[in-house]
Design a protein that fits this description.
The chain is globular. The model has no long low-confidence stretch (mean pLDDT 88). It has 2 domains: 75 residues, Alpha-Beta Plaits (2-Layer Sandwich), CATH 3.30.70; 139 residues, Vaccinia Virus protein VP39 (Rossmann fold, 3-Layer(aba) Sandwich), CATH 3.40.50.150. α4 runs parallel beside α5. By secondary structure, the chain is α/β, with parallel strands linked by helices. The termini are far apart. It has 8 helices and 14 strands.
C-alpha cells in the first residue's frame, strides 16, 4: 500500500491552528502526523486520499500545501529521519529500534511506527499513556479500540493486564501491532482487524479509544455495552472545546466523567460506568 504525504506550510501567525487542522484531517482519514518548524506533515493511504476535500480544507484555513507519494518500501527510511524518542514524565519512554539512547523512565516501549497512528508524539497518545499510568490494571480485561501501533495495548500489558484485545480497521495498523507486540515480548495481546462490529462479545475492565470525535460519538453506545459497572473508559482524539459533546454522549449511556487532562488544545478523558 502506498501513502500520500501532504506538507502544509504553517506560518508562525497561524501556528495555533495546527491542532484544529490535524483534527479535521483525522476525520478525513489521515492517520499519522508530524509537526516540524513552520510545517505540518500528514499521511493517508493513497486509496483514501481525497484531493478536492484537502484543497477545500487548506483553502478554508488559508494554508498552502504540497503532495508527495510515499511508497511502502520507503516508509521506514522516512521515519528514521523524522521519528525522535519521547518520554512521558518519568514513567514511559517510547522509541524506535534504531534509537540507541537510554532514558531514566520506569518503562520503555519499542515501536516500529511505519504508517500506524500512535507513536506517542501526538498529544492524544501522550495523554492516554499518562492517564493509564494512574490506574491499577493488574489481572484486568482490556480492549484497545483503534489500536494503531499497539502502544496502548503494550503499555496495558506492562501495567499488568491479563488479557488484551487490540483492534483496528486499518490493515497496516493490524500488521504493525502484531510486529510491535513481538518486539516488546508481549504474548497476551490478541490483535484483530475490524471495526466496532468485530469487537469480541466480552465485558472489559478497561477500554481505550483514541480515534476522532465522529467515530467516538457513533461507537460510544456499543463500547458502553462492553463494560460492567465500575469499568473504565479512556477517550481521546478530540479538542478541548469538544469535551462537553463527548461527556454528554457518555452520560446518556451510563458513563460519568471522572478525570480529564489537556495538552496542545487536545483533551483526554476518563469515564466510569455506573
Amino acid at each position: 500500500m502506498n501513502y500520500i504525504e501532504i506538507v502544509i506550510s504553517v506560518p508562525e501567525e497561524k501556528s495555533a491552528l495546527s491542532e484544529v487542522v490535524v483534527a479535521f484531517l483525522a476525520e478525513q482519514g489521515f492517520e499519522s502526523f508530524c509537526e516540524e518548524k513552520d510545517k505540518l506533515l500528514a499521511y493517508i493511504s493513497e486509496d483514501n486520499y481525497n484531493e478536492e476535500m484537502t484543497k477545500m480544507l487548506m483553502s478554508a484555513y488559508g494554508m498552502d500545501f504540497s503532495k508527495n507519494l510515499i511508497q511502502q518500501k520507503n516508509w521506514n527510511e522516512e521515519w528514521e529521519k523524522n521519528f525522535e524518542p519521547i518520554c512521558i514524565d518519568n514513567i514511559l519512554t517510547i522509541k524506535a529500534p534504531f534509537h540507541k539512547q537510554q532514558f531514566d523512565t520506569t518503562h520503555t516501549i519499542i515501536i516500529e511506527p511505519k504508517m500506524s497512528f500512535g507513536t506517542g508524539h501526538h498529544a492524544t497518545t501522550y495523554m492516554m499513556c499518562k492517564l493509564m499510568s494512574e490506574f491499577d490494571m493488574s489481572e484486568s480485561q482490556v480492549l484497545d479500540y483503534g489500536s494503531g501501533t499497539g502502544i496502548l495495548s503494550i503499555y496495558a500489558a506492562i501495567l499488568g493486564a491479563s488479557n488484551i484485545v487490540a483492534i483496528d480497521v486499518d490493515e497496516w495498523a493490524y500488521e504493525n501491532s502484531k510486529e510491535n507486540t513481538i518486539k516488546n515480548k508481549v504474548s497476551n495481546i490478541t490483535v484483530l482487524r475490524g471495526d466496532i462490529k468485530n469487537v469480541p462479545e466480552l465485558k472489559y475492565d478497561f477500554i481505550f479509544a483514541n480515534i476522532n470525535l465522529n467515530v467516538l460519538l457513533k461507537d460510544i453506545p456499543v463500547l458502553a455495552q462492553h463494560m460492567n459497572k465500575g469499568s473504565i473508559l479512556f477517550l481521546s482524539g478530540f479538542l478541548i472545546n469538544e469535551v462537553t459533546i463527548i461527556a454528554k454522549s457518555c452520560k446518556e449511556h451510563g458513563l460519568i466523567l471522572v478525570r480529564k487532562i489537556e495538552k496542545d488544545n487536545w483533551s483526554a478523558c476518563v469515564f466510569n460506568k455506573v
